[in-house]
Amino acid sequence: MTDDVAAARAAAEEKSAFSHPPADPDATAAYGDDPDHVIDFWTPRGGSGSAPVVVVLHGGAWRALYDRRHISPFAAFLAHRGFAVASVEYRRGTAGADGGDPVAGRWPDTFDDVAAALDALPALIREHLPAGDPRRVVLTGHSAGGHLALWAAARHVLPAGSPWRTDAPAPLRGVVALAPVADLEVADKLGVCGGAVRELLGGDDHFAERRLHADPALLLPTGIAITLVQGRADIEVPHAVAESYADAAAKAGEVVGVTLLPDVGHFPLIDPAADACAVVAEEIAQLAW
Known about the structure:
Helix content: 25-40%
Number of helices: 9
Strand order of the largest sheet: 1-2-4-3-5-6-7-8
Structural class: alpha/beta
Low-confidence stretches: none
Strand content: 15-25%
Largest sheet: 8 strands, mixed
Number of strands: 8
């Protein structure tokens, strides 16, 4: 496939994924004081009794332009598959000074928010998502959100003294990371998201030091079931990034599942109109039920 053909297909996939109108949640709750400190909740459609909870972290290169609204059709899709769903918002990068390029992420705010949201979720689920079972939680995220999902599941192996470190693993059934920016060093070398990885960690002066606290590929083994779902035709986050994470996990003595989908790019994984989205739901179900 030529570069032009690959780019055209990627553009068509992105257009399809973003063609769905935002889906309204059943409830929204705050986990902090900032306007971005909110979580949307969808109750499971159909069935009876309690349902597994899928926690969704949206992508968008950690930049302000992309918020949780673009992934709300995916969240609603999961709710129609019988899951209770919680979609987390968090602070992202600034829009760029004087009309300049947007900046990816905020240090330490982006990580502060994801940690705080996950810590607050059990109580919020009980209050706002009574059909959800907080004992059966699967964490998922797409692209930059996949990075944050892997990171959130590894807080117990953060370096001593890290403000986000926990004493024990998160109470998760597992993580399903979708086209995740799973290895920050490899992603940076590949120029993923236009240099967003280096921006996330504060630029050249902080990249090496902060990777120790932010790179999922350095935070292994987790002891938590992890599956990576990746399109082979992804030109936004090439599958070499996911494979590097899986290799690092293997060297640490941990098996990470990798599902590579042929002829699939970056966005079908969260596009309810795409067959790949149903594959994602099945991968989540294997961990959740």
